[in-house]
TrEMBL record:
Family (UniProt): Belongs to the UPF0587 family.
Record has Protein biosynthesis as a keyword: no
GO MF term list: zinc ion binding
UniProt keyword terms in alphabetical order: Metal-binding, Zinc
Name of this protein: DUF866 domain-containing protein
Keyword Zinc: yes
Protein source organism: Ramazzottius varieornatus (Water bear)
């Protein structure tokens, strides 16, 4: 079962923001077990660089776990990146939901996402780039010295959409 992670935010003087570098970016996710419906309170970290062999003999996954309750062996993987480049959220996406990552989940259903850190943000007013940005309380503000404008990403939201 594939799930798209869609995000939206309000951009001020931002050309785009994107997870960077994608290989080591940490997706903080919450899941529930599709077998028994049990939801975990804690966030799990999924990263492209981090794979482990699954017990199902289907090769590798980015997250493998056995449900504490029903003992199902579940896994989840990041899919859809042919190049090691993230999908940017750009000024033309401002205020609308956009898919930025897709997860292939077997026995798991994503229920939560935390934006966290590790983003690269480019100004639309100058060539200024902010690296390793962390979103706190789903927002970020700074000042672009070269563009002489404040720059911000506000009201970040997410949702998961199950692929048909
Ligand atoms: Zn379970």
């Amino acid at each position: 079962m594939k799930f798209d992670l869609q995000i939206k935010g309000d951009l001020e003087n931002v050309q785009e923001f994107v997870p960077s570098p994608l290989e080591t970016f940490e997706w903080h996710m919450k899941f529930k077990c599709a077998g028994c419906g049990e939801e975990k309170d804690t966030y799990r970290v999924i990263s492209l660089n981090d794979t482990s062999g699954t017990k199902l003999g289907r090769g590798e996954a980015h997250l493998v776990e056995t449900c504490q309750f029903c003992r199902h062996a579940n896994n989840a993987s990041i899919v859809g990146f042919e190049k090691a480049v993230g999908i940017p959220y750009t000024e033309s996406d401002d205020g609308t939901f956009k898919t930025v990552c897709t997860f292939d989940c077997r026995g798991l259903e994503p229920t939560g996402f935390r934006f966290g850190g590790g983003y690269r943000i480019a100004s639309s007013k100058s060539k200024t780039v902010f690296n390793d940005v962390t979103f706190e309380d789903n927002e970020w503000t700074d000042y672009d010295e070269e563009g002489k404008e404040s720059i911000s990403v506000l009201n970040l939201e997410y949702r998961f959409v199950r692929r048909k």
